[in-house]
Write a structure and sequence with these properties.
There is one protein chain. The protein is mainly beta and 124 residues long. Helices cover 0% and strands 51% of the residues. It is built from no helices and eleven strands. The relative contact order is 0.32.
């Protein structure tokens, strides 16, 4: 089992920045690929970013490319999502997820463990 706890969400004005953190506990964190997803009420959970177990590979949704950066620190069992130039359409609950496969993954079904989510609200 892997337990994931997100933090860092909040209210920010358009153009501002936030950094989300996801702390993992349980099984060996370093062997898992990690991902960030987001969801708004009435819509499906959507992929935001993913990073491989080593941190060498990353991949982003087109909607956040160039604005968001995913990173990880395996010594701290933590993955981060730096979000810059935020837009009102980035408003959502953001979820952290872990994939036993180890390589980057973009589908909800690829992931084995999920956090409880953290709210990000961007005002215009």
């Amino acid at each position: 089992q892997v337990q994931l706890v997100e933090s860092g969400g909040g209210l920010v004005q358009a153009g501002g920045s936030l950094r989300l953190s996801c702390a993992a506990s349980g099984r060996t964190f370093s062997g898992y690929a990690m991902g960030w997803f987001r969801q708004v009420p009435g819509k499906e959970r959507e992929f935001v970013a993913t990073i491989s177990w080593s941190g060498y590979s990353t991949y982003y949704a087109d909607s956040v490319k160039g604005r968001f950066t995913i990173s990880r620190d395996n010594t701290k069992n933590t993955v981060y999502l730096q979000m810059n130039s935020l837009k009102p359409e980035d408003t959502a609950v953001y979820y952290c997820a872990a994939d036993r496969g180890g390589d980057i993954a973009t589908f909800v079904e690829d992931y084995n463990y999920w956090g409880q989510g953290t709210q990000v609200t961007v005002s215009s």
